[in-house]
Structure formats: structure tokens, C-alpha cells
Task: inverse folding
């Protein structure tokens, strides 16, 4: 059943705060000072809850679609609007995704889990309660390792955090704020979409640690295909609980910062909240147990509502859903069970793809790539696959393996630099691994110079698919092959020296910087095709 249009539910004064998501990026330059200047005086403690939208074509308990940016209120079933008499039917795909995610996070998978009703009122939650697994989750007791690269350091620090539980639950709808009419409109397309709530222990102490963990979690979810991790679309949202205390004393009162919409903002929100709590306590004030939101423009957290007054969610067992039972192996399933609807834990384990840390270790052993470059290759979707395709193809008649250092350097420094200039991703350009590999081969065999390589790369990235040419064809058409002949280079150097007597006189008077001018002029004269080392050597001989 489709419910079209927008629902006007309530006035601005009683609405939930709407947080607009933005593009995520892990900014290495995040400046974090999470302890007060007197580091012995305060310690910060942070725990987070991550709401990851399950990659599924249907919602958790209804058959409605889950496409992002679908026509407003056009992916809504009777159950999603809480029509009386409708009953939830559990989506098997969501269960499988939760089990695979639990295994990837090294969790214990519970063979019996149950659903609860968590009661609270918002206009975008038509039933007045959320179906969740607060008390009997599908998985718990996990552990995730991650690397933290602190500002100014080149060596990452290995850390880990406990995943206390992973539970399935429904998402709510979306509030759309009409500022002019001072009212809130409701889009229920998202209502009932399946979420995995991943809850960590309060084992973080800095915003940059949380940011590093979230980036690793994002890599894991993408690798196993259970969540697309797009924070800008709201499919990954973070709540952070922050408190401070004196070392050796009990933990302080925590404040929760809700719905942070990018990894960069998570670090900023935690930074600010720690500093705010320190300032409050040093003024003699107390920290309120409250819910706050992060204002990305001001870089501050602001109060939303008092946590203490909304503490009782009146949890009760969900009467319309039986306990969820999982089995280790197919032979463990009772005969009366419908095997097509049963999730087998070991089958999910067999389907587990290579996890990010396993990929890093494989790349390190197979290609001897530095860990820092491996992180860069894995940071952008499709880039690692591009690198491995380039390395699969052998170069030359003898079938020699490509120079991995050259391939990595040109991807990390030159290709990514060009893509950033064009504001594109690797998946959005027409560059093929075969074409890029041929370019690297030309560089490795010294048939072209680095400057010419950059020109060729730009042409390959910017030209229309129907006009695509191989790197060799581009070089041949423009006569860009490298000049290694010393006699030819010497003639070009002599021409430049003869044309610039004033510069020669300056050089002989001791102005050594003029030498760079001569080098540049020779390269211009030869379209950057001359061997740089030979140019420098011959110019020095001629000028001295």
C-alpha cells in the first residue's frame, strides 16, 4: 500500500531536531586535545552507538522498498503507518546481515534472541513504539581492532574496543522542517527500515580514536556488504556518550550527543563536549545528564532535551514476534522448521569475504606496500580493486611483473591528485587498469618522462570515452618519447645558453638560482621530453 504526500504532524515548538547529513571524510588534520592542559586533572571517557542501515531491498518487518530519495511517502506499507490489525513479518535478509556483521566484529552470535517494544512519541514514529532488541540482542561480546594516526605522527597506534552488543531494530521516519510555515512535515519512507545498532563499551578517550574506529567499521561493513556506510544519506549515524572525571575516581555524569552526521564531525563534537564539561566543572557547575546535538557550523554541542525525564521507555516483549532462533548447522534444524526461512550461522561464516585487516596483511605480504599506502588505497571505493587489476596484468613480452612501487606512487600521488582536481572518484572516470598499466610501463622503461606521464594521464582522464586512446598512441601522436641522446640534449642546452647571455653572466657571478631557469628553458624547448638528469649534467658542464 502506498501512502502519497506529506503528513503535517505538529508545530515547530514540539519537533525533533533535524540534522542534515553531509559527505564524510576522515580528516587526518583533526586537532584533538581531549584532556585539559593539566593532563593529570581530567580524563575523558567516550562510548558510542552506531545505527547502521541494513543493505536490504525490503524493510525489517514489511515488504516496502528502501531506496534512498524515493518519492516522498511512496515506500510505505500499512504496517509502516501502524494501521490497526497489521502484523510484522521478519525479513530474513536483515537477520543474515546482522549475523554476518556480528561475526565480522568477532561477536558471540546468540542462538536465541527476542524483540522488545520501546515506547516513545515522535511524529515520525506512527506506532508510538519502536521494535528493537534491547534486552536480548542477536549478538554481543565483540572486539574490533583499529589503527589511530595521531596528528604529526607517521606511525599508527594499534587499539581495540569492545562491542557490547549488536541488535536489530526499526528506523523512524524523517521530519522535514518548513521554516516559513513553522510546521513539520513527515516522510515515512524510512519508517521501518532495518537498522543494526552497534554499541561499544566506554573505552575511547579521544575524538580521533572514535573517528579511527568508525572508519574501520565503515570499511568492515562495506567489505561484507551489510551497510553502504553513506553518512551523507543517513545510512550510518552516530550517538556519542561523553563524560570526564579525575583519575582514580568514579566516572562522571555523561551527556549524549545524538545523530552526528560525519566522521569528521564525530571527532569535533567529542572534542568540544570534553572541553565544555571541563569548563563547566571548573566553574563549579554540574554536568547535566542530557541529550545534545552537534551544530557543525558553530562547532558546538547544544541541548536537545533532558535525558532524565525521558528515561522510562516502558520496554515490553513484542507480542507479535516469536523468539528468533538460529542454528549452527543445517542438521541442527528441527524437522518442523521451514528450512528456507532459517538462518544457519556457519553458512554465514563460510560466506564471509576478506575483512579489511586481512586485506591489509595480504597486500603487505604480497606486494610489500607500506601500511600508510594501503590505507590510502582502501580509503576510496574502487581504488584498491583498480590497483590489483593493474598489478594482475603482466608487462612486456617477457611477462614481467609491474613495478609495484611505481604503480603505488603514481596512484597515491599522481592519479589521486588529478582526481581531486577534477572532483571525481575513480569509479567516475574512463581510465581503465589496462590503460594506466601501459602508462606505468612507459614510465618504467624510461620511454617517457614523468612530466609527459602527467600530461598523458590528464588526457586519459579528461577525454570522452569514444575518444579514448592508449598512452602509447597519445605519446606517438604528440612526439613525446623521451630524449636520452646526449648529443641531442647538448645541442638544445647550447641553444638556450646562446640565447641568454645575461643569465649566463649572472650565473658566473655566483647567482646559482639562475641554473633552474636554464633547466626549465631546455625542458620547454623539448616539450619536457628530455631526461632531467642528463639535462642537469650537460648544463653544468657547458656553464662551467
Result:
Amino acid at each position: 500500500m502506498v501512502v502519497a504526500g506529506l503528513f503535517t504532524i505538529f508545530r515547530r515548538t514540539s519537533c525533533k531536531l533535524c540534522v542534515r547529513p553531509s559527505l564524510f571524510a576522515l580528516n587526518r588534520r583533526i586537532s584533538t586535545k581531549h584532556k585539559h592542559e593539566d593532563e593529570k586533572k581530567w580524563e575523558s571517557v567516550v562510548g558510542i552507538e552506531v545505527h547502521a542501515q541494513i543493505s536490504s531491498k525490503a524493510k525489517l518487518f514489511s515488504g516496502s522498498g528502501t531506496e534512498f530519495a524515493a518519492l516522498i511517502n511512496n515506500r510505505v506499507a500499512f504496517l509502516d503507518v501502524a494501521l490497526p490489525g497489521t502484523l510484522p513479518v521478519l525479513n530474513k535478509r536483515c537477520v543474515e546481515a546482522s549475523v554476518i556483521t556480528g561475526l565480522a566484529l568477532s561477536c558471540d552470535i546468540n542462538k536465541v534472541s527476542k524483540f522488545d517494544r520501546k515506547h516513545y512519541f515522535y511524529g515520525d514514529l506512527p506506532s508510538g513504539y519502536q521494535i528493537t532488541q534491547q534486552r536480548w540482542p542477536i549478538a554481543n561480546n565483540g572486539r574490533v581492532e583499529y589503527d589511530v594516526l595521531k596528528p604529526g605522527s607517521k606511525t599508527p597506534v594499534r587499539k581495540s574496543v569492545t562491542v557490547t552488543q549488536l541488535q536489530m531494530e526499526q528506523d523512524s521516519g524523517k521530519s522535514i522542517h518548513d521554516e516559513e510555515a513553522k510546521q513539520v512535515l513527515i516522510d515515512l519512507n524510512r519508517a521501518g527500515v532495518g537498522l543494526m545498532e552497534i554499541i561499544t563499551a566506554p573505552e575511547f578517550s579521544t575524538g580521533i580514536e572514535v573517528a579511527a574506529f568508525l572508519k574501520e567499521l565503515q570499511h568492515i561493513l562495506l567489505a561484507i556488504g551489510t551497510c553502504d556506510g553513506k553518512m551523507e544519506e543517513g545510512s550510518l549515524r552516530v550517538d556519542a556518550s561523553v563524560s570526564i572525571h579525575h583519575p582514580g575516581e568514579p566516572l562522571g555524569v555523561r551527556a549524549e550527543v545524538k545523530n552526528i552526521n560525519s566522521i569528521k564531525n564525530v571527532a569535533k563534537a567529542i572534542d568540544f563536549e570534553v572541553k565544555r564539561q571541563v569548563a563547566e566543572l571548573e566553574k563549579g557547575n554540574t554536568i547535566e545528564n542530557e541529550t545534545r546535538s552537534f551544530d557543525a557550523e558553530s562547532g558546538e554541542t547544544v541541548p536537545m532535551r533532558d535525558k532524565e525525564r525521558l528515561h522510562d521507555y516502558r520496554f515490553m516483549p513484542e507480542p507479535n514476534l516469536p523468539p528468533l532462533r538460529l542454528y549452527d548447522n543445517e542438521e541442527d534444524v528441527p524437522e518442523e522448521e521451514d528450512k528456507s526461512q532459517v538462518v544457519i550461522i556457519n553458512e554465514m561464516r563460510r560466506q564471509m569475504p576478506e575483512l579489511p585487516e586481512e586485506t591489509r596483511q595480504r597486500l603487505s605480504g604480497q606486494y610489500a606496500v607500506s601500511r600508510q599506502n594501503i590505507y590510502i588505497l582502501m580509503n576510496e571505493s574502487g581504488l584498491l580493486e583498480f590497483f590489483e587489476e593493474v598489478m594482475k596484468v603482466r608487462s612486456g613480452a617477457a611477462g614481467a611483473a609491474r613495478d609495484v612501487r611505481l604503480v603505488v606512487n603514481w596512484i597515491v600521488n599522481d592519479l589521486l591528485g588529478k582526481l581531486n582536481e577534477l572532483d571525481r572518484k575513480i569509479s567516475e572516470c574512463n581510465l581503465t587498469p589496462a590503460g594506466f598499466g601501459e602508462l606505468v610501463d612507459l614510465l618504467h622503461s624510461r620511454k617517457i618522462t614523468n612530466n609527459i606521464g602527467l600530461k598523458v594521464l590528464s588526457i586519459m582522464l579528461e577525454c570522452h570515452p569514444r575518444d579514448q586512446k592508449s598512452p602509447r598512441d597519445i605519446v606517438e601522436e604528440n612526439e613525446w618519447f623521451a630524449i636520452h641522446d646526449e648529443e641531442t640534449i647538448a645541442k638544445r642546452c647550447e641553444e638556450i645558453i646562446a640565447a641568454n647571455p645575461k643569465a649566463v653572466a649572472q650565473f658566473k657571478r655566483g647567482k646559482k638560482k639562475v641554473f633552474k631557469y636554464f633547466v626549465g628553458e631546455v625542458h620547454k624547448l623539448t616539450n619536457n621530453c628530455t631526461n632531467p638528469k642528463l639535462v642537469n649534467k650537460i648544463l653544468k658542464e657547458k656553464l662551467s
Observations:
- The CA atoms of residues 56 and 200 lie 24 Å apart.
